[in-house]
Amino acid sequence: MPDPSTTTLVLLALAGLAAGFVDAVVGGGGLVQLPALLVGLPGASPVQVLATNKLSSICGTTVSSATYYRRIRPDPRTFGPLMACSFAGSVGGAFLGSHLSETVFDPVVLVVLVVVGGYVLLRPELGATTALRYAGRRHVATAMVTGLGIGLYDGALGPGTGSFFVITLVGLLGYSFLEASAKARLANWATNLAALCVFVPQGAVLWKVGFVMGACNLLGGYLGARTAVTRGTRFVRIFFILVVAGFVVRIGGDLLGLW
To answer: How does DSSP assign 117-149, residue by residue?
Structure first.
């Protein structure tokens, strides 16, 4: 496909910046970035859009993961197995990604987001502090199953992955929103890397667009992670609710043909 215009690149770069910030705080940057790529690159194939989104996203998740790790110090006994299973799931999902349509996922994602958003909104104490529900092997096994399932989804399509990691780690395992965001970024980095391991050999990545968006995604990821760590769990919870509400409106509007 021909190179995009300078104006298109600038708009895609701004989308990458916004996506990086959102992704670093609560996840779901793909729901900002993927539509921008679809609009800005109408001549690109679905697999090229997915692959380029992954290249841009891994730039942001790299810096936000490093920021969270330095400031929060998450337990490697949990995030290590979580990352490994997320990587494995994403590899499998990436092989499916070029054969599946977004229409397969949108209704399911919409229902999950509505349930998740309502659950968090109606339980203000949820995620305020870390109160683990499981211990030992059961805790690790639950984290591994979470990583495998969400990793599979991320490799195949991806939008909302970080948010799904956050709410699962909060609601199922009992982490605070801030600690969940730290582990979610590490797991999301692994899923992005895994998908690229599949997409790069296929020649699907649009490198120029990916690196331009990636540089801005990196900056957004750095700013988002620092903001979340500085402002704390309450900020992350409120931001999570706002982002999920925005995703529900966007996906719901798509399904209803409103835009």
So the answer is: HHHHHH-TTTTSS---S--HHHHHHHHHHHHHH
pLDDT in tens, 165-183: 998 999 899 999 999 999 9
Q: What is the DSSP string of 61-100?
A: HHHHHHHHHHHH---HHHHHHHHHHHHHHHHHHHHHHTT-
pLDDT digits (tens, 9 = 90+) for 103-123: 665 676 677 778 777 877 888
How many domains, in total, are found in the chain?
Answer: 1
Residue 101: inside a domain? yes
Give residues with Cβ within 8 angstroms of 52, minimum separation 6: 37, 41, 44, 204, 205, 206, 209, 210, 213
For the whole model, what pTM was predicted?
0.85
Please check whether residue 1 lies inside any domain of the structure: no
Identify whether the C-beta of residue 32 lies closer than 8 Å to the C-beta of residue 221: no
CA distance 19 to 221: 8
